[in-house]
Amino acid sequence: METLHREILVGAFDEEGRLPADTKVAERFGVSRMTSRKALAILQNKGLIRIEHGRGAFIESDVLEYRLASRVTFPQNVRSNNQLPSRKLIYAEGRQADIWVCSCLELAPKTTVLSVQLLGESNGRPVAFSTNFLELPRFSGFVEAMGPEADVEIAMAKFGFASLWPGTAKVIARMPTEEEAKLLDQSPSRPVVEKKAVEVDADGRPVWCHVTCYAADRIQFVFDGAEPGK
């Protein structure tokens, strides 16, 4: 399964995206046909392939192109891939900000902030899990403002921020925690890409910061070049 997964990511199969039949997979790896079927079933459960009875297994072309260094929101990124975005609120609570959050939001040490965890989905498939931090009492009522769809953009607009700009961001690859793997519906042995970032208003003042974990094999990141004159 791991080998086929890697080959899918590097485009090792034909233009139609057809994988070898389970009998060929079994022969190649020297395993039983049942074992090869299990491997293909796991890939299908991960959303990487679809199995069509009578035709075979085909690669699902649903890896998202995701723009990081731009003012494109999560819903806009998903819609640009002709997929349907959605978010789920995992939890929200007031908590004492750590050093990183205080630095990002220019707050005094140990300030209480609103911590909001969200799961971002594309066509119902989880692709990003984020923990977001906002200043209190500045953003009191933010969770209610998001509504049942956990619409961050609507909530931000209600607080007077129709548009935000990306500030400093750091991106690393790492292994997920048990909770992250469960929420992203992936194996704990598969890496995630973590982005720690702050977003600012038109005057460059920090509005919120967040730590977002992306399912690495479901995302293809695109970094935009700087605008002329910037």
Automatic annotation (TrEMBL):
Top-level division of the source organism's lineage: Bacteria
Keyword Transcription regulation listed: yes
Keyword tRNA-binding: no
SMART domains associated with the record: HTH_GNTR, UTRA
Keywords: DNA-binding, Plasmid, Transcription, Transcription regulation
UniProt xrefs under PROSITE patterns: HTH_GNTR
Membrane-spanning ranges: none
HTH gntR-type domain span: 1-62
InterPro entries per the UniProt record, alphabetical: Bact_HTH_transcr_reg, Chorismate_lyase_/UTRA_dom_sf, Tscrpt_reg_HTH_GntR, UTRA, WH-like_DNA-bd_sf, WH_DNA-bd_sf
Protein name (Swiss-Prot/TrEMBL): UTRA domain-containing protein
